[in-house]
Amino acid sequence: MHILLTGGTGLLGRALCAALLADGHQLSVLSRRPHKVAALCGPGVQALVSLDDWLPDMHFDAVINLAGAPIIDLPWTTARKQTLWASRITLTEQLVTALQRAERKPAVLLSGSAIGIYGDCAEAPCSDSAAVPNPAPADFAAQLCAAWETAARQASTPDTRVSLLRTGLVLAPHGGLLARMRLPFRLGLGARLGDGQQWMSWIHLDDWVAAVLHLLAQPDAHGACNLTAPQPVRNADFSAALANCFGRRVHLAAPASVLRLLLGQRAGLLLDSQRVLPDRLLATGYAFRHPELRSALQSLS
Ligand SMILES: NC(=O)c1ccc[n+]([C@@H]2O[C@H](COP(=O)([O-])OP(=O)(O)OC[C@H]3O[C@@H](n4cnc5c(N)ncnc54)[C@H](OP(=O)(O)O)[C@@H]3O)[C@@H](O)[C@H]2O)c1
């Protein structure tokens, strides 16, 4: 297949490109850094500088939309929120317009989303087969995900199926969440967050990539799909398991009040409880390589 990706140069995109190339697909990557595409995504991967480069007579069999400015790194000022919004929602709207202009439509759009769409669910399990209530106006992360999904759904027609990748916390050998946590936990300075009772829904990078390939190949996979391991854990258990990888124990706690003071609204990304279950992936026969946290972490340390 000839596949167009956005965000192909990112943590998830690079791993996905490697797997797609290994499967023999031809790739084009839309990037603000076209000169880096071949080095980051693989030899032979074509760079697109702008969606205007997608001429109506060009055909892509599939489109995978992962672009988005990093969400936790910088304070959510008005300007930053605009960047987070434009890099996901505006870009997805432009992508859908280009897709609709194409003379031959791609058979599938796999479009990014995140488990942040569920907001703070406390103990309630979050299934992808249930409707998501409208996000609270103050929950920017949930609003962002909901609008991102709405924009992508506009591409859905009898010719093009749309599948929404509700990604959990991805555990990768380099980069992402673990890159931030490894050093303090290795030094015995890891802390549980708040009371540590909030649920964390994680997924190993290998499973994330394999699940996306699985969805690409499933002609019946429409709509939201949770990309999370089947065994979410509480933050206290996650912290203990990570500390254990380094022969450490967790003695510290970062109080919720301090996190809210330091991070403002972004503290919700650490403190909200999301007990997400991959119901649709399991129903379509996906078998997780790393269903259990401790062995997933050991494979990455
Ligand atoms: N990693 C996770 O744990 C996780 C969890 C849930 C959801 N997600 C979502 O999945 C997607 C991929 O995640 P990732 O970890 O691979 O992200 P990443 O490493 O930060 O890469 C995202 C890519 O998006 C593009 N991008 C960044 N800022 C942009 C901007 N201002 N405007 C347009 N494009 C921009 C970049 O591509 P170019 O520089 O080539 O343009 C970048 O390579 C993201 O949208 C993220 O929100 C990730």
In the CATH hierarchy, what is the class of the domain at 2-169 and 202-228 and 277-284? Alpha Beta
Instruction: Provide the list of bound ligands, each named once.
Output: NADP nicotinamide-adenine-dinucleotide phosphate
Which secondary-structure class do the elements indicate? Answer: alpha/beta
Topology order in helix (H) and strand (E) letters? EHEHEEHEEHEEHEEEHEEHEHHEHH
What can you tell me about this protein's structure?
By secondary structure, the chain is of the alpha/beta class. The protein has a domain at 2-169 and 202-228 and 277-284: Rossmann fold (3-Layer(aba) Sandwich), CATH 3.40.50.720. It is built from 11 helices and 15 strands. It has helices at 11-22, 37-41, 78-101, 140-153, 176-186, 205-216, 235-245, 256-263, 268-271, 279-283, 293-300; strands at residues 2-6, 26-30, 46-48, 62-65, 108-114, 125-127, 161-167, 169-171, 191-193, 199-200, 202-204, 223-227, 233-234, 252-254, 275-277. The relative contact order is 0.14. The mean pLDDT is 97. The protein binds NADP nicotinamide-adenine-dinucleotide phosphate. Residues 7, 9-13, 31-33, 66-71, 83, 87, 91, 112, 114, 167, 169-170, 176-177 line the site of NADP nicotinamide-adenine-dinucleotide phosphate. NADP nicotinamide-adenine-dinucleotide phosphate binds at residues 7, 9-13, 31-33, 66-71, 83, 87, 91, 112, 114, 167, 169-170, 176-177.
